[in-house]
Amino acid sequence: MKHILIVFCMFTSFGIYAQELFVVTEPASNAPAGSLSVRVGQSLMKNDLTDSNMYSLSPEVTWGISKNFMVRASAYLDNSVNSLDIAGAGAYVKYRFFSVDDLQSHFRMAAFGRYSWNKTPIKQEPIDLMGRNSGFEAGLVATQLLKKVAISSSVSYGQAWDNDGNDFPEFQGKSALNYTFSVGRLMHPKRYVSYKQTNINAMIELLGQTITENGRSYMDIVPSIQFIINSQARIDLAYRKQLYASMHRPVADGVFLKLEYTFFNVTK
What is the model's pTM? Predict the structure, then answer.
């Protein structure tokens, strides 16, 4: 619980000014209404159990149903069992229920939920519903955009189940509180002339989790750089580093590469 308070103190006191597209966290804003985006996420993480690297691949499709509602379908693949194979799949929904818009700023809040299915053996203590665990997640996210700076924070509850064919370890907690804090800034261009200009955003994200049954927790930091090309194509490059952990995490540190393309006015 103390980590949640720290995150919200940071959220309310941070005085700097970012673009509202983050690499490993979701803002309160939705995908544009009527849009369809295709994303491929990749990560290469150090696996301390095998003294090797784990490669993960996550293709996703996002549909902006309206300005307030979006859905996403994801598949999760990794090489945890020798060759690259499908590990699971998931569905994500987000509903924006509050918005205050100004000329050069806005504040938004949204509720979100996630359902995940996974078939791999459970070898880690953290609950990861984006590629490692079966279960569900529900939470709230708030985002403030001020000119060239975006600040976002979220809190959610996650519940894990047995993975398909793999029982959840009896000595581990099945539920967790997740909390994030993200801040990013538009670095280029200094002044807009055309929507075809390439945007370059720099950001730092903090991701934490506390297992509710035993209080064990972790906190990671993710610095990243993002390129938005022609207002439709997006390239994200990030590095995830563990700041601390009181739980067993064989896979914690690594690099991320995400490629995304958005098709506008597809379903209107």
Answer: 0.90
